[in-house]
Design a protein that fits this description.
This protein is mostly helical and 322 residues long. Helices cover 61% and strands 0% of the residues. The protein folds into two domains: 41-165, Tetratricopeptide repeat domain (Serine Threonine Protein Phosphatase 5, Tetratricopeptide repeat, Alpha Horseshoe), CATH 1.25.40.10; 168-322, no CATH class. It binds heme C.
């Protein structure tokens, strides 16, 4: 039991105050939840299993992965990595739901759980801006589920705060999350602009919005520091390809097939393009850019491939599958 005897002592001390005052003071005096990383045993195995499924593209393993991670979390609820990976597993489940033959209404439970565990991950690892960006995204998703305008606004401002915290990572997150808005919504244009600004912060100057020469920036590639989020890595082996597939898709939805084609082609500049499992998707996008405008603006539920990347059956795998 966690410190209930401490609580009893506090209640005794505050005995003469009203319940509300006692509640406020008792909660305020409760010890902070402090992170304690776990890198051995059950937790290590569960997290390894998570990475294997993510990099292997094995969505069908998610129920077992979530079970193992949750069991490890119960053993040690102070491990930020385990908390975060539970959250990421739930968001992967929800995000690639079009892989399923039938999407149950209770898919929403994965969003609720993802939000809960991201909140815990942020509490345990308050400097990890990735968790904050994902937490804000889950707030937006939940706000939509519940028709909660206040949560929607809170989520939006939290998302913007996460962009300030790590623009190279969270400008993508913000634009990606907002890419499902109607193309006529002024916020949609803003979402596209976040993707361009993501390139700006990665290359250190303003990039041509019609799609300029990108080859001159390839020498900037790095695997360390905040700029690592601009390139491929062990965590996201095809981040570069996935980023441009998404920006191309967002431009198609905006109606600019010509610029989209140039942007799609940047994905081919990646050194590992030949090993990317989604090459044929990209080739198809370039060939069908004009026809896809209508499809991306008015998505058909259940469509797995010819739909905006954020709605597709590979919305996480484009970047994370080896
Ligand atoms: C455009 C590419 C892209 C897409 C799409 C994408 N990610 Fe990522 N993801 C990244 C990058 C880049 C990082 C940061 C890598 C780093 O920290 O060095 C990352 C980090 C992660 C991490 C690492 C957490 C840790 O413990 O280090 C996980 C897990 C993850 N993403 C899961 C997902 C899930 C689930 C989705 C789908 C909802 C998704 N990603 C969509 C590029 C992407």
């Amino acid at each position: 039991m966690i410190a209930l005897c401490g609580l009893a002592a506090i209640l005794l001390l505050l005995g003469t105050l009203g319940w509300m005052q006692r509640a406020t003071i008792a909660v305020w005096l409760a010890p902070e939840k402090i992170a304690a990383a776990e890198t051995a045993g059950q937790s290590k195995r569960a997290n390894d299993r998570f990475w294997d499924a993510l990099h292997g593209g094995r969505y069908e393993e998610l129920p077992g992965v979530i079970e193992a991670l949750t069991a490890a979390y119960l053993e040690n609820p102070r491990d930020a990595e385990t908390a975060a990976h539970i959250a990421f597993s739930h968001v992967w489940f929800a995000s690639e739901r079009s892989r399923l033959d039938r999407v149950p209404a209770t898919m929403t439970e994965h969003i609720a759980l993802a939000r809960r565990y991201f909140a815990e991950a942020v509490r345990l690892a308050p400097t990890d801006e990735r968790f904050k960006g994902f937490l804000a995204s889950m707030e937006l998703a939940e706000a939509k589920i519940h028709g909660d305008e206040k949560l929607l606004r809170r989520g939006y401002f939290n998302l913007m705060a996460s962009v300030d915290g790590w623009p190279e990572f969270n400008l993508f997150t913000a634009g990606y999350v907002l890419s499902g808005l109607p193309f006529t919504d002024p916020m949609y244009a803003e979402a596209v602009e976040y993707q361009w600004r993501n390139i700006d912060v990665c290359v250190g100057e303003k990039f041509d919005r019609r799609g300029g020469d990108a080859t001159k920036y390839l020498a900037l590639e790095t695997t360390t520091g905040p700029k690592r989020a601009c390139w491929n890595s062990w965590i996201a082996p095809h981040n570069f390809e996935g980023f441009f597939l998404n920006l191309g898709d967002m431009l198609v939805k905006q109606g600019d097939a010509a610029t989209a084609r140039r942007v799609y082609a940047y994905a081919k500049l990646s050194k590992t393009y030949a090993q990317w499992p989604f090459r044929s998707v990209l080739e198809g996008r370039i060939a069908q850019a004009e026809e896809n405008i209508a499809l991306f603006r008015d998505p058909k539920p259940g469509e797995r491939t010819r739909t905006l990347m954020a709605h597709s059956a590979f919305s996480c795998m484009v970047c994370h599958q080896q």
